[in-house]
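Justification of computing resources. Each target in the renewal requires a structure prediction run like the one illustrated here; the chain below, 316 residues long, is used simply to show the kind of job we budget for.
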Amino acid sequence: MKTALVKTDFHFPGQKNVYHGKVRDVYSVNNDLLIMVATDRISAFDVILPEGIPYKGQMLNQIAAKFLDATTDICPNWKLATPDPMVTVGVRCEGFPVEMIVRGYLCGSAWRAYKSGVREICGVKLPEGMRENQRFPEPIITPTTKAEIGEHDQDISKEEILARGLATPEEYALLEKYTMALFKRGTEIAEKRGLILVDTKYEFGKHNGQIYLMDEIHTPDSSRYFYLEGYEERFEKGEPQKQLSKEFVREWLMDNGFQGKAGQQVPEMTPEIVESISNRYIELYEHITGETFVKEETTDIAQRIEQNVTAYLNSK
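Resulting C-alpha cells:
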C-alpha cells in the first residue's frame, strides 16, 4: 500500500499557530499568510474516517489550484502559490461563518429531505412533483453554518444570516453573485469534460476589506459530478446516475449501517476499499482536468512538504 498523510506537525519559519480541519491542516505564518496542507484524510457525515486515502490530498489540492486560477476574472481568491503538490499558500482572510452551497439538481441530502416531505430548504421553496436527480429550473443557494469538528453543519436561510449579522445585506448580495457566477463557470468547464456539475460549496472571507474566495473549489470533496452522457436516459428510467463525487463513499457507509449517528460504528476500511476510493478520486481528477494524474512519491511526504514550503517561505 502507498503511504497516506493523515497527520501533520510542521514548524515553518514564522509559524504562529495551526488549525486541524477535517481534511486540511492550516498553518498561520506571520499573521498574513496561510499554508493549507491537503492531507489524505477523508470525512463523511462530518466524521473523519479511520483510514487515509493515498494521493487524495494531492488530487484535491491540484484540482482546487486549477479552478482557482480559472476563476480569477470572476472574483479575487486567496491563492498565492502551490509550493508542493499537497500545499497551497495564500493570503489570510477573515472567513464568513457560512458555506455557500449551490445546487443545480435535486439529489443527495436535498433529495433525502424532499422524499421525506420537505418542500423548503434554507428558505428556498421547492416545486412539487420533482424526482431524484432532476434539474432545478434555476440553481438554488442553500447555505449552511460552518460547524466545528465533530458537529454537523446546519442549514441556514438568507434571512437568518442577515438577522444574526453573519454578513451585511451588501456582503451577502455579493456572496450570492459570486456563488452563481462561479457555479456557472464550473458548469461550463465540466460540460467540456463530459460532466455535469451537480452541486458544490464555496467559502468566502474578507482580506483588506474585500471579499475573497477561500479554501477549495470544484473538488470531489466539495462538489458532486454526474456523467453527461446517459444522464437523460438514466433519469427517464429512474435509474441511479453515474457519478464522480464523494457520494459513493457515503453510500458505502450507509449500506454498512453508518450515517454518523451516535452509537454507529464506521465499517472496516480494508486495503481493497481504500484503494478503490483512491482510484475513484484519480478517475475524477483526470475527467475534470483532462490531464493524466501524476502520482508523487509517497515515501516521506511530510519531509517533502516541509522542505518545499520552507524553501518557498525563505524565498519571499
